[in-house]
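Ligand: iron/sulfur cluster. Inputs:
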Amino acid sequence: MFTKEEASALSAQFETKTPQEIIQWAVDEFAPEIAVSTSFQTHSMALLHMVTRIQPDIKIFFLDTGYHFWDTLIFREQIQHEWNLNVVDLYRDSRWDIFARQNTRTLPLQDPNLCCYIHKVQPMQKALSGLKAWISGIRRDQTPERAHAQILELQDDGLLKVNPLLNWTKSDVQTYIADHNLPAHPLYERGYRSIGCAPCTVPVGAGDNDRAGRWVGRHKIECGLHTDMFKHKELAEVKDQFVMKPEDMK
Ligand code: SF4
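Predicted complex:
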């Protein structure tokens, strides 16, 4: 494995590489102990297409939060079948079941940080715990937080996060999608340009940032997968970020 200094130096070299070159390097280095995550929204299709052309049987992690639009789940099934993808659905830990069921309708609205932690952050941490590398599709032009990301990010636990699209713009992604005639999420044409869970996603106007329709009015722009929250493995380290205090939150 790498030291943080080695990963940082390599990351700087990758600033001028194409996404495909970065993915190829990661696959050569880590397969089969590598996975890619996807939300199956329109702009995710570019990364999914690139990665599976290089490593067709790579593990593809999909967070099945239980709050997705039905359209997302149907699109996910369609693409998995047509592209013959190795999709692995990730679910919340069962210890949250009673609390989550009791608060199904209110949780995303009253405490979206806790809801994302339960349904996204923890399941992804668990799924990645046995792997060496994680390919994600974040770009620097998406949010202020992502603007400071690095192409290679080595976590304290040894997991290497690989962000091959970091230097691509929305326009680059759209060009790739058009050039390869990739399918679009069925809600995209209706203004849902960044699609997460149904209670936390609304359509946006033509001039709006794509992510302006996520968690509207809830002072939240990231789910936690790409923030410091993801680096903390113990619940006690992050529970101050939550409003609700379920009894099993020890
Ligand atoms: S996006 Fe919304 S519904 Fe989905 S896990 Fe986060 S808070 Fe919950």
